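Q: Focus on the shape:
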Amino acid sequence: MKKKYEMRCVTEIMDPRALADILEYADVLQIGARNMQNFSLLNEVGGCGKPILLKRGFASTLEEFMLAAEYLAVRGSRSITLCERGIRASQPHVRNMIDIAAIPLLKVETDLPIIVDLSHSLGRTDIVCEVARGVMAAGADGIMVEVIKEPSKAASDAKQQLDFGEYSQLLNALKIRD
C-alpha cells in the first residue's frame, strides 16, 4: 500500500526488540508519550538512522521533553520532530490540555521542528479549527490530526477523528490547499 499510493509511513515503536522489523517499512519512527522516558528504547531508536517523531509525555516538563530529544541526538539521530500532545489536566472538557506556551519556549530552547497532535490532545473534533489556529499562531511548524471517511465506524477513538468534510473545513480555516 505504501508504495502503491506513494505514502510515507509513520509508526510508533514501543519495544526496542521490534526495531529491526519496523525499519524495513517505516519512514518515521514515533516515540509515544508513554515511552518518552524509556531510555533503552530511546537508545536503540536514536541510533537507527530514521527520522523520529517524539511525543511529549502527558506529565512531562519541557526540560524532560528536551532531554529526551537530546538523548536521541546523542545516540546519532539527526532528524527529530517534537510533538506537543497535551499535558494532564484536572478537567473533563478535553483529554489533555495543550500547552501552547510550550511551542514558543521550545522554539527558543531548541532548533527542532514542533508539531501539535490535536486529535490525541483534544479527544474531540468540534474545537479543532480554533485550537489549530492558536497553535499555528504560537509558532508550531505543523499539526497532526486523524482523518477517516466514517469516524463512527472507527475501531477506536471515533470522537477524535475528523471526517473528510471536517478536514476540508480545517484546511480552509488554516488557508491550506490539499
